[in-house]
Design a protein that fits this description.
Number of helices: 4
Strand order of the largest sheet: 1-7-6-3-2
Radius of gyration: 15 Å
Helix content: 25-40%
Shape: globular
Number of strands: 7
Structural class: alpha+beta
Length: 133
């Protein structure tokens, strides 16, 4: 019998994220988050239907652009569109976007720590308190 060389993904939860996930998110939102978790556990970050991007890619017109970039780099912050309330097609069709994103710390392509759910535009990064949990 053969063995699989496929790496399994690991998804950790920040304390604040876990509290909202278990106590406050709607059933619909929990379902969207669960879809993302299941994908990462099975496949890592690649192949997710929603856009997955480093949070240091900040539009030029943001007043606090450099501070956001520095914070995103310091904590390895990324975000993924989770399809809440729905996925929307993009012009190039490589991935879909949504109004809400999940912030996470990328430890590797197969290991992330979920930090916060946020409206995408304008997007704010998780607070220092959440990042230090």
């Amino acid at each position: 019998m053969g063995s699989s060389n496929k790496t399994k993904g690991i998804v950790d939860f920040g304390d604040t994220f876990l509290k909202y996930y278990t106590d406050s998110f709607s059933d619909t939102t929990v379902g969207k988050v669960d879809d993302f978790i299941e994908h990462v556990e099975a496949n890592g970050l690649s192949g997710w239907v929603g856009k997955v991007s480093p949070s240091n890619r900040v539009p030029e017109n943001y007043a606090d652009r450099e501070a956001i970039i520095d914070k995103a780099n310091k904590y390895s912050l990324w975000h993924a569109h989770i399809g809440d309330p729905c996925f929307k097609d993009t012009w190039h069709k490589n991935y879909k976007v949504s109004d809400w994103v999940i912030h996470f710390q990328k430890i590797s392509n197969y290991h992330i720590k979920l930090l916060e759910l946020d409206y995408h535009n304008p997007m704010t990064l998780p607070s220092e308190k959440i990042l230090e949990e």
